[in-house]
UniProtKB/TrEMBL annotation:
<dbReference type="InterPro" id="IPR036890">
    <property type="entry name" value="HATPase_C_sf"/>
</dbReference>
<dbReference type="InterPro" id="IPR050428">
    <property type="entry name" value="TCS_sensor_his_kinase"/>
</dbReference>
<keyword id="KW-0812">Transmembrane</keyword>
<feature type="transmembrane region" description="Helical">
    <location>
        <begin position="25"/>
        <end position="48"/>
    </location>
</feature>
<keyword id="KW-0597">Phosphoprotein</keyword>
<protein>
    <recommendedName>
        <fullName>histidine kinase</fullName>
        <ecNumber>2.7.13.3</ecNumber>
    </recommendedName>
</protein>
<dbReference type="Pfam" id="PF00672">
    <property type="entry name" value="HAMP"/>
</dbReference>
<dbReference type="InterPro" id="IPR003660">
    <property type="entry name" value="HAMP_dom"/>
</dbReference>
<dbReference type="GO" id="GO:0005886">
    <property type="term" value="C:plasma membrane"/>
</dbReference>
<feature type="transmembrane region" description="Helical">
    <location>
        <begin position="88"/>
        <end position="108"/>
    </location>
</feature>
<dbReference type="InterPro" id="IPR003594">
    <property type="entry name" value="HATPase_dom"/>
</dbReference>
<dbReference type="InterPro" id="IPR003661">
    <property type="entry name" value="HisK_dim/P_dom"/>
</dbReference>
<dbReference type="InterPro" id="IPR004358">
    <property type="entry name" value="Sig_transdc_His_kin-like_C"/>
</dbReference>
<keyword id="KW-0902">Two-component regulatory system</keyword>
<feature type="domain" description="HAMP">
    <location>
        <begin position="112"/>
        <end position="165"/>
    </location>
</feature>
<dbReference type="GO" id="GO:0000155">
    <property type="term" value="F:phosphorelay sensor kinase activity"/>
</dbReference>
<keyword id="KW-1133">Transmembrane helix</keyword>
């Protein structure tokens, strides 16, 4: 029957684990108490024997009655020692059994109370799934090791819930973004093909629209793949990179659009070396400049500055543009978020700053943005300086 063998293997792995922690702690405590009690009983047995053996000797032939039995005087010490040791073994044996049983019962009860919070953690972990990540242990009581474990588990659940929520939003937004160009393509094809009188000009117009929508979908897929490859990975290449040179290359790519919109660009000139992957860092500079140009106003400005200190190399791209509320600045680093732009806009996928943030974090750097009082945005990237 399908699935039977894995279940049997799981059952075998469970049965091989041996007794539980509560049983092991109880057995350990009982064994320790039994060992100490046995040692004390043996010491008592030896001590009583030695003390009784020190009884003064009586003259030979003196009649002595011990326990209703006449004992020769010369054997009195040995008889008293044997009698005392017998009493110690008899009474001590009952006490030994009582102490061991009491220790086992007490250890079982105490370990059960101590381990109860661990059972709560275990049950919470068993109940968890992607649909129930909002549950928390919220353990009360003394802040001991178990409580710290429960708090750590709750903090882990907070991070997992945030990651799952972010993943759900990302998938939903990606689906929405990909649906837009596909819908445009399908609509254009349906409208054009349903028109029996469509001429060559109409077909060419339809082809241009389809090509533009296809290019947008291709750019979106490439951005998604770059974001997926960048997030949470180690860099394969680490070498000194001049950010000023990368900015120059990225600037040449956006110059035609900047001239068309009449933007004034002030660029850095002094070299600023960082350590990292040249391809990823060029993508960072390119995304920052593309955002600064595309989300600007006609006749606006763009200012690019670089600099270095003993620890960090800084790249700052500031630009004019529409006013951005301060509480929305941090959300711009989330995928598919655009400041003041509808989702159906065709001038970007909304992944530029997300890729910048992922690439910066892959370089163990820092990135932040700030809204300018006169309108627009300034994004600052700090990377480890090259030696």
């Amino acid at each position: 029957m399908p699935g039977t063998e894995p279940m049997r293997a799981a059952a075998r792995s469970i049965t091989r684990r041996g007794p539980g922690l509560r049983t092991r702690l109880t057995l350990l405590a009982t064994a320790l108490v039994a060992a100490v009690s046995g040692l004390l009983l043996w010491l008592g047995w030896m001590l009583v024997g030695n003390v009784v053996a020190a009884v003064p000797r009586l003259p030979a032939g003196t009649p002595v009655r011990v326990g209703g039995v006449d004992v020769p005087a010369e054997l009195l010490g040995e008889a008293l020692r044997n009698s005392a040791r017998h009493q110690v073994l008899l009474v001590g044996g009952f006490a030994f059994v009582a102490v061991v049983l009491a220790a086992a019962l007490l250890a079982w009860t105490v370990t059960g109370r101590v381990l109860r919070p661990l059972h709560d953690v275990t049950e919470a972990a068993r109940r968890l799934s992607a649909e129930s990540l909002d549950e928390r242990i919220a353990l009360s009581g003394p802040r001991d090791e178990v409580a710290r474990l429960a708090d750590t588990f709750d903090a882990m659940l907070d991070r997992l819930q945030a990651a799952f929520d972010s993943q759900r939003r990302f998938v939903a937004n990606a689906s929405h973004e990909l649906r837009t160009p596909l819908s445009v393509i399908r609509t254009e094809l349906d409208v054009t093909l349903s028109d029996p009188n469509a001429d060559e000009a109409e077909l060419r117009r339809m082809a241009d629209v389809v090509r533009e929508a296809t290019a947008r979908a291709e750019r979106l897929v490439e951005a998604l793949l770059l974001l997926a490859r960048t997030e949470g990975v180690e860099l394969a290449v680490r070498e000194p990179v001049d950010l000023t040179e990368l900015v120059g290359r990225a600037l040449r790519a956006v110059e035609p659009e900047a001239r068309q919109r009449g933007l004034r660009i002030k660029c850095c000139e002094e070299p600023a070396f960082a350590v990292g992957d040249p391809a990823l860092l060029e993508r960072v500079a390119g995304n920052l400049l593309e955002n600064a140009v595309r989300h600007n106003v006609a006749g606006g400005w763009v200012e690019i500055t670089t600099g270095s200190d003993p620890q960090w190399t800084t790249l700052r791209v500031a630009s004019s543009g529409p006013r951005i509320p301060g509480d929305q600045v941090e959300t711009l680093f989330e995928p598919f978020r655009r400041a003041g732009i509808q989702r159906t806009a065709r001038n970007g996928a909304g992944l530029g700053l997300s890729i910048v943030q992922a690439a910066t974090q892959a370089h163990n750097g820092r990135v932040w943005a700030e809204a300018l009082p006169t309108g627009g945005l300034a994004v600052t990237v700090q990377l480890q300086v090259a030696p």
